[in-house]
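User: Predict the structure for this protein chain, please.
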Amino acid sequence: MKINGFSLNYSAGELKQIVDKQMRKVVLIDKNHPAYEKLSEGDKKAFGYLINAAKIMNDVALEMDHPLNLVQKQALEVAAATSPYAANALKLFNSLNGVAGYNGVDEKPVEIFKDIHIYEGRNFYPQDLSGEELCKIINKMLDEGKAEEVKKILSARTMVRRNGKELKAIDYTEYFAEEFSEIANELECAAHFASDELFKDYLGWQAQALLQNNEEMDILADKHWATMQNTNLEFTISRESYDDKLTPLIYNDKALCARLKELNINPVSKDMLGVRVGIMNKEGTDLLLEFKDEMIKLAKLMPFSDEYEQNISNRKSGQTMIDADIAALTGDYALCRGGITVAQNLPNNDKPSLSRGGGRRNVYHRQVRQSSDRSKTQKILEKLVIPELHKYYDEEYDHLFTIGHENGHSLGPDSSYQTALGVYQHIIEEHKADVISAAMMPEYVKAGIIDEETLKGIYTTWVVKRHFMIAFPVDKEAHRVADLIEYNYLIEHGAIYFDEQKKLHIDFAKMPEVCRNLLREVIKVQLSKSAECAKEFVERWSNWGEMQQYIADFKKSLGVKPYIDIVSYF
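Assistant: Here is the predicted structure, written as structure tokens:
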């Protein structure tokens, strides 16, 4: 079968096997969910407009990801009406939210169509542009005094296209003018019906930010968004930069980096956009706020804290956080390529609102974290973990660890230290957040938020859920490489070990000190502002040994579900 002239890369049988056996469902809330039923009539109407905005933003993200995403999806939707073969191809497309992507298991990318490949710069840059050519063109443009255009090219919010022998940058608000206008209209309609004045205000600022080629509007929208602690409705336009693998290659050219620094130009990876829509869960949010109250104290306990400024001040945390029942995850959130986001702490450190006194907002996705396969987990425990530790595994402990991780993004060196690490910046930052969570958990025991038994549960679940990997991480996938680094460090320093039967033991007495030492190491890497230092650290601790392979083989024998089907009812 051909779709727009491109043959499918998988047979009908292979696609059926993927859809039937290798996809797990993440079921979002519907109109019968108690959280939705409790909304006022006005908030329900607002909710519908927010869902519309989310759907439009998905098309924006598809365009950012690959130039053929939209046309191939539309063709698949037509063919799926009469062909089960095409229908299964469409389900795989929707899982990846694109024509190609990694699944977290296979070394090579999953490419649905023959001759349609994934690009290093996605569709943010011309598909034939290499890192070497990008540096060459940037140098030439600087020679010709075109620093302002270079600054736009290396901005997080531009699509870049060829302009003769040069490059030109097109701001998102211009490139996606039609889509952004439609989204802004939906937000303004939602603001009209929403009951909460703070939420109305935020939607108004966010709508204007979509309509103006003005970074100041993004900053104002971010600042208003980050203050919303007690609003019923949750709406986020996420901007994260993990997908752009081309811009960070600038940091491999030392001479060019020096030139850019002199001109005060900071190369920042492109933002992939997404939308999350949900409803605040009060009980879950109350727990988060208990953890939040400790953050100022934790900032003072960070290694080398006197050598850098943190986002957490001595007076207030500048952080809101909620637990949310989720109704829509689109765009970047739906790029389920080896995983799906269980929580998110934004804005990221590269966003200017933080340097202008804005705060952060941390949102947890209840329906995502509640979608685990408990029967498979029990088999993993029986095979790979000593019986004494089984009682300490619980998905709720992973949620507590995730709270510590997301809070950890607000601690430590600022964005200038992170971006200087080039292609390793995201690995090191995600690793830092993990280790902050692990190293600081004993402080929550001291504060009475958790007890010693819960601490053991958090450590056990962290190791079994995160460090028992199913494959060596490919494509420098930040979270998975971070997991591997942590596993190897814990093994080498005796915090965890395996007996002759290849079953896990944990030395709970050693774990806090080993984690604190690892935290010192990763902060040193960020403070170095050296991509070479980061590379050396990552390569030192990301080896893949026999025990990792043994674990991976066993997990694969239980059946792998690397693809995610987001079931949305709105």
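The CA atoms of residues 235 and 450 lie 30 Å apart.
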